[in-house]
């Protein structure tokens, strides 16, 4: 376990992410990216409300839902702008193997929100890789 964690720390430290950091007020946001653990209690209600809010304000958004359970989560249940990463989509260290994560992290969102309540290496990795100008 210690070996795996030390490799994960090296990966996080090795991320070269040049981005323009800029504070924005909520009224100026026109693109939003967010990341969440689909297995957390009450998370789907929160995400549904956030999607409705973004749509009502004409904010373009994209999201990644992380499923940490062994049983795959059906990918067609959520909004079409939300990609699901199941445990099978991760390698031994927790790095995503799907190309959708590279597309997601390369987008320059005005605002990026990580809704993870507990530490998760995959969420940490995607947050560090994100090129968003303002991260929460």
- Major beta sheet summary: 4 strands, parallel
Q: What's the oligomerization state?
A: single chain
Count of individual helical segments = 4
Number of strands: 4
Globular, elongated, flat, extended or rod-shaped: what is the shape? globular
* Category from helices, strands and their pairing: alpha/beta
The run of helices and strands is HEHEEHEH
| Mean pLDDT over the residues | 87
How far is the first residue's CA from the last residue's CA?
Answer: 29 Å
Radius of gyration: 15 Å
Uncertain segments are none
What percentage of amino acids are in beta strands? 15-25%
Strand arrangement, largest sheet? 3-2-1-4
Describe the protein.
The protein has 136 residues and is an alpha/beta fold. It is 32% helix and 16% strand. The chain contains 4 helices and 4 strands; from the N terminus they run H-E-H-E-E-H-E-H. It has a 4-stranded parallel β-sheet with strand order 3-2-1-4, with helices on both faces.
